[in-house]
Amino acid sequence: MPSASHQVLLESSPEQVWSFVSNFDNWVPLVKGYASHQNLNERTSIWVLKGEAGRIQKTVKLRVDITKQTKPNHIAFSLKGINENVRGNGCFTAKKQSENATLVTGDLTIKVYGLLGPVLNPIITTILPMQTQKLAEAIRFQVLKQRRQLQPAIS
């Protein structure tokens, strides 16, 4: 099953990281292939992602459910394809390193089932680590940007 993990050190408190990752609206648009999303409630969202693998182009609708939240250091979610036979899960874990430094680990596992599974899963296995790293770095950038916007100006 294709999976990837990436760690990034953020110059923010775990509470600041939580404020960002606990809200789908903040980070779903950072996912590669993002087209749109709709929040059904605080724990469930429908994501529309567009992607291509070689000559295969797909638009995938995923139902994403938060399966566990432990504020401010862990959020886990499951993924289930609505229009494609895809399943997976992932999580963000934040570990305080110091007053203003948090180590964030992002994990993602996803598998395509059915006829395209044997073709797409090896491709996903190849690209998932890089995409997980890019997402983690994009989240890092956005958390830092958000933190700077909240800091009072020094005169």
How is this structure best summarized?
The protein contains 3 helices and 7 strands.
Model description:
Helix content is 30%, strand content 46%. The chain is an alpha+beta fold and 155 residues long. A 7-stranded antiparallel sheet has the order 1-7-6-5-4-3-2, with helices on one face. Helix 1 crosses helix 3. The longest helix is centred in the last third of the chain and has 34 residues, at 117-150. It starts with a strand and ends in a 5-residue tail after the last helix.
In CATH terms, what is the fold-level topology? Alpha-D-Glucose-1,6-Bisphosphate, Chain A, domain 4
Unreliable sequence segments: none
Structural class: alpha+beta
Number of helices: 3
What is the β-strand count? Answer: 7
InterPro entries: COQ10_START, START-like_dom_sf
Pfam families: Polyketide_cyc
Protein name: SRPBCC family protein
Organism: Tigheibacillus jepli
